[in-house]
Amino acid sequence: MQERLAIAEVVQNWALWRDAGDWDRFRTVWHADGWMSATWFQGPAEKFIEVSRAGFDKGVSILHLLGGTSIDVAGDRAIAQTKMTINQRAQVDGVLVDVVCTGRFYDFFAKRGGQWGIVRRQPIYEKDRMDPVDPAARLALDPELLSRFPEGYRHLAYLQTKIGYAIKLDLPQLKGPVVEALYAHGRAWLDGASSAFPA
């Protein structure tokens, strides 16, 4: 239970410190080889901190809310799944909108030097929606562009594309072979796989 509480605290600190722009403390939730995957970024945690900080300073508004956490521990390794929502606000074709994407953080954890840290974070995207901030505003989305994106993060990808990000199109969703492969590698990680990534 103590190990699970320590891991859950890291998960909570990730969201709090990233969204508040507390970059020095945010850095401590990762191990040195930590890796972050998202719709708009895939790379080392240190680079993720750098680009997140640059976006934060420019006014990019991405916030995270967390729900329940389920944690499997095997010695000095763990897999944590945490219900979450990603909230992003931006202009889309001149209309200020909010996108809310619901899913889970799927985290590969390791305990090194007595400290739990994230080795790999892979969100799972389950469903999303887009709403004008002003209910009276009229928003007409481009159906061809919208249809290019996976259902689980379609509107989030639409917004992020409109503001200049390149979107990864094969991320895990609620069902399907991609998320099943993620679960399988999570089990392998707990069983001692040499990497948090499949071969």
Task: Summarize it.
The protein has helices spanning 2-20, 23-27, 45-58, 143-146, 154-162, 177-190, and strands at residues 30-37, 42-44, 61-74, 77-92, 95-112, 115-132.
Outline the structure in words.
The chain has 199 residues and is α+β, with helices and mostly antiparallel strands. Helices cover 33% and strands 39% of the residues. The longest helix is centred in the first third of the chain and has 19 residues, at 2-20. The chain is globular and about 55 Å long. It starts with a helix and ends in a 9-residue tail after the last helix. The model has no long low-confidence stretch (mean pLDDT 97).
Terminal CA distance: 32 Å
Largest sheet: 6 strands, mixed
Structural class by SSE content: alpha+beta
Tell me the overall shape: globular
What's the helix count? Answer: 6
- Which runs of at least 5 residues are low in confidence (pLDDT < 50)? none
> Going across the major beta sheet, what is the strand order?
2-1-6-5-4-3
Helix percent reads 25-40%
**Strand portion, in percent?**
35-45%
**Strand/helix succession:** HHEEHEEEEHHH
What is the alpha-carbon Rg in Å? 17 Å
Number of strands: 6
Tell me, rounded to a whole number, the average pLDDT.
Answer: 97
